[in-house]
């Protein structure tokens, strides 16, 4: 069973997330917290596998809690629940060790997918979240970043660049496959190959490179 902690200062949101996750046979919501400080304490005491953290919370915000969790219980995987506010928050979470982002209006199936991916040690960013992150971080790009990105992309084949461009648009594997007439499994193989060649840890890093290089929408 995947032991999950849900953290949000709004009781209705916590209740909704608990209801969704509790419908899965392999996920157990073992604790709820209304602020970051409570989340850190519960993560330590409840043997949590995955912690869902809202960013904006009283007492201790989600980003501060993320840093504290990474310092004290690094084995806990953290998913950030967000509606995407300030750009520096996104940057801090990405560099602070979060396992990914999940939009608060995500579908129930996506929420469960994200928790399972995080528990398995994978980074997870939903297609919608990826697009928001890319748009947020890509603003204010420099010519130097663009030149570096184009240089890194030189090792990709033409077809790999096509797939990468769609990552830059935030498309899922299935949607990308429909766009360029590939099966979802084939796109997944291409994505894995692209991440390895570009030495990117996850899709959002690859998507940022695509945007910096001028690929995608």
UniProtKB/TrEMBL annotation:
Taxonomic superkingdom: Bacteria
Keywords: DNA-binding, Phosphoprotein, Transcription, Transcription regulation
Transport in keyword set: no
Entry-linked SUPFAM superfamilies: C-terminal effector domain of the bipartite response regulators (SSF46894), CheY-like (SSF52172)
UniProt signal peptide: none
Family annotation (Pfam families): GerE, Response_reg
All copies of domain Response regulatory, residue ranges: 3-119
Keyword hit for Transcription: yes
InterPro entries to which the protein is assigned, alphabetical: CheY-like_superfamily (IPR011006), NreC/VraR/RcsB-like_REC (IPR058245), Sig_transdc_resp-reg_C-effctor (IPR016032), Sig_transdc_resp-reg_receiver (IPR001789), Tscrpt_reg_LuxR_C (IPR000792), WalR-like (IPR039420)
In-chain residues carrying the UniProt-annotated modification 4-aspartylphosphate: 54
GO terms, molecular function: DNA binding
Domain HTH luxR-type: 149-214
Name used for this protein in its record: DNA-binding NarL/FixJ family response regulator
């Amino acid at each position: 069973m995947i032991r999950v902690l849900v953290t949000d200062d709004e009781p209705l949101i916590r209740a909704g997330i608990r209801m969704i996750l509790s419908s899965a046979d392999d996920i157990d919501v073992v604790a709820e917290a209304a602020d970051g400080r409570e989340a850190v304490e519960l993560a330590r005491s409840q043997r949590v596998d995955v912690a869902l953290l809202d960013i904006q919370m009283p007492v201790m915000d989600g980003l501060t809690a993320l840093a504290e969790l990474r310092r004290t219980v690094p084995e806990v995987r953290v998913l950030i629940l967000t509606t995407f506010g300030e750009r520096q928050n996104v940057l801090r979470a990405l560099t602070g060790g979060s396992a990914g982002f999940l939009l608060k209006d995500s579908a129930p199936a996506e929420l469960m997918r994200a928790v399972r991916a995080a528990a398995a040690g994978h980074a997870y960013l939903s297609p919608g979240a990826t697009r928001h992150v890319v748009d947020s971080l890509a603003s204010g790009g420099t010519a130097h970043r663009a030149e570096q990105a184009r240089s890194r992309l030189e090792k990709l084949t033409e077809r790999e660049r096509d797939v990468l461009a769609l990552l830059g648009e935030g498309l899922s594997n299935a949607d990308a496959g429909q766009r360029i007439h590939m099966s979802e499994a084939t796109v997944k193989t291409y994505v894995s190959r692209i991440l390895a060649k570009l030495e990117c840890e996850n899709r959002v890093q690859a998507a940022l490179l695509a945007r910096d290089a001028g690929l995608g929408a």
